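Standup notes
- HV: blocked on the assembly model, inputs below
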Amino acid sequence: MSGLRLKIGDLHEESEKIEKNQDDFDLKLDEILGISEDTPEVDHVQKPRLKLISEDAQGSESTHSGESKKKKVNRYFYKVTNHHELFKIGRSFYKDYLSGVKSFAITSTGYQGSQQNSILGLASFFDHKEENLKIAIISDNLYLGAFKDIVAISQKHYVPLFKNGKDCEVVGFYGHFDFVDLTTLLDYANDCETDAYDEIFDSVVDHYDIVFWDVPELHKIQKNSEKYFPVIMKFESLSIIVAQSLSSAADVEEIKNFFLGYGINLKGLLLDSVQAKNEAKVKTEEKQASRENRKPWWRIFS
Amino acid sequence: MVEDIQLKKMNIILDETTVLNFPFIGKLIRRYWFVSLIIPLVALIFGVVKYSSQNTIFQTSHAFKNTAESASSSSAFASILGEKNRGLDETEIVAIANSIDFQFKLAEVLMEDQGFSNLNFNSINAEKSVPQSSFFAHCGSEKECVRRTVATLLPSLYSVVPDKGIINRYLVIVRSLDAFTSKSLLKALSILIESDRVKTIQSTITQQIKLSEELIETKRKELEEGDINTQRDRYKFLVSELEDLDRKLNSIRHNFFVMKQNLSQAETILEQTLKVRKKGVNVNELLKGEKAAALELRISQLREDLNSLEISKGQFGGKDQVIITQIKEEIKDKQKQLDAIGAFKRSISSVSDFVKSKDKTSPNQEFDYVVLKKRFDEMKNEYDNMVSNRENMVKEMTQLENHLDKYKPTIEFLKLLEQKSVQLKIAESTVVSDLSFDTLPSDVASFKKTSLGKILFISLASGIFFMFVAVLSRYFMDGRIYDEYELQSVFKDLEIIGNTPDFQ
């Protein structure tokens, strides 16, 4: 069984062992890399909490991991609260994959955390769905948001992507998927000496079975469109995340029109209902914090 | 692009069957709950404030009936005079109290009232109630100015309206900010409307009297110029003379004809007497007549005896029958003898008496006749004179009649005018108002101009309306996407893949 799996049957029982009364869908990481639960500087709004599985569960997982040759079992997992939705969108993307699409871009109206969550979820789905898939997640925010913790417990390794036989440094997460820094690729593509421009992106797409693009914010692309053009041209399917109660229709329309202008195939829209809740939560917490820090009105002179 | 989105949003709100997409609007109300709640709430609070800030109005009313169509004395007189008595119509009645004259009169009546200083002249719509003195501050002690000011303030306090339920019935309604003012004003209005109406009717009749008298004077002059009075008096005199004459004539005529008959009779008697005396009587026929008379007497005596015997039959035994039989036989015998003489011969006996008597009376009859004849001639002369006089009088009367006929229409017209003048004078002194007030006015009711329920309903309805407007405006200004339905509606060309995964 693959290391990063979507646990439905046996994992469900294990989840019950881990947390009572919890029947959520869990994302499990194969191997323990010594990262504790209290990982510092985790953005609680944007990023899900990476959790540590118990020892019993680990033993059980180790048994499963023995079946896998490539991927290792780890003790980290994310609990997916809406696993039904993940399966729903995963099936849709998988259908596209089966029809030959391998480069999926995910964008939004400025909600990078939501993009990363979606990419992480989809990558895990594909990883669970088919073993031995080489999955790449390309983002310019690897050290922020949802990717941050995973990248932190991942190991760097080199992949021969460059034209001159040089290897590109990527971060591999226990053989499940590689995190590629988009900035590195862009720098390389725009390096006059290498004279590569768009070939590097061809190499990335060719090297991996599936590529998930964490599309930068639109204003960044618009500001430097020449730079991003080869990237955009590699998108075979673009999905736009709409943050419920936050994204404006005009912004979505702008993104849509922008990418349609490049002839990119728009797969559809993903609705993010969590973002608004998180923002509301943050606002409440901020208000509470400011209230706590505020002096009582009777101490105005102190 | 923005316009496209607004159009798409508009399409979401509209619905093919129900025009408006009510479920979505409900969703919008829940989404913008603060606006949805605050606007109706503010409207309700505004309504309550508005209600509580309203003045308390004290209303009282007094009903009256327009009796012009029924039998009031003035209308009855007017109808006798042949005038068209239509009375007042609805508009006129309602307008009575709106005339400037009426308002000034009312002001005068109120000013004369002792409670004038306690009256509240503030309009029921006044936002702030001010004391009475401030209304008349600019007048000082000038009464006319006060009257004028009161007259201008009063119209907002009362109205005359038709009673919706009953025909020909009206209500004087007084609304003020004070119960005493309402009562006082209503009382003054009721009295003034009635008296004003009486005066109006009286002035109309007075005018008619004046006109009639002028006309009578004109016609009289016209008749005087034609010496019609003298002639009419003469005619009247002749009429009475003729009546006397006719009466006398009738009396004389009767005596005249009686006397004529007597004279004729006397003349005949005298003539016959003279004939009888000249002719004389036959002796044999006279003897037969005497014998017949003696036989008739004997038969009569025998019959009396027979009757006596028949009555006392049986007292004398069998002798009665013998005597009766003898008497009967004697009666039969005497009757035979009388029948043998014959009837005509009997008159001879009276003729002889008649001749004898005529011999005695003939000188008297001649005298009587002469006297009667003389009296008859005198009476005839008198009778003929009277007939002649009558003919002359009739002739004169005919001439006068012809002359008076020329002036007959004028005379008739004058007669009618005189009648009318009298009747108008009676009507003037007995005129009553055709607007009859009920005995008692209604009680004073206090209320606010607009009821709480009405205000709440209006404020709530307007609040809901503005809430809809605000919610829809907010929706159109709000570019954000709130749910899958909205997302799908705005981006119909794109598929909604699903929700993004969420990690704990």
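- HV (later): unblocked. Confidence is low (pLDDT under 50) at residues 1-46, 57-69 of chain A. The CA atoms of residues 70 and 215 of chain A lie 29 Å apart.
- Next: hand off to the docking folks.
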